[in-house]
Amino acid sequence: QVQLVESGGGLVQAGGSLRLSCAASGRSFSSYAMGWFRQAPGKEREFVAAIRWSGGRTYYADSVKGRFTISGDNAKNTIYLQMNSLKPEDTAVYYCTASETLLRINVLTIPAAYDYWGQGTQVTVSS
Fold it and tell me: For residue range 51-86, what is the model confidence (pLDDT) as tens digits?
């Protein structure tokens, strides 16, 4: 079994910052890509950011570019999401995800492309 566990969510005022963490547990595995998605009440799960370990390339949704930064440690199957200049519209449950297969860039935004998911951590941004 592979488990992903997120942490770092909470309540923050608009303009503030939070840092989310995601770490794998259970059986060891090698991920090719890891990322973050978020889901607001009544909304579809949407892509936030991803990192492809080959080359360390990072990708972001337009809505978070310049504000969020994804980073991590491939050897530890661990990623982080530094969120700055938070807005109320960033409020959502944030999910960590990982893939054991090489994902093409054009499918990084598709939840079904990934193999493992965390339980989610709530981020609430007040105005």
Answer: 999 889 999 999 999 999 999 999 999 999 999 999
The per-residue pLDDT for 28 is 87
Beta bridge partners of 96: 36
Whole-number Cα distances in Å, 2 to 28, 37, 105, 127: 7, 18, 24, 37
DSSP-assigned states of every residue in 29-83: ---SEEEEEEE-TTS--EEEEEEETGGGEEEE-TTTTTTEEEEEEGGGTEEEEEE
- Smallest CA-to-CA distance from 33 within 93, 68, 77, 95 is with 77
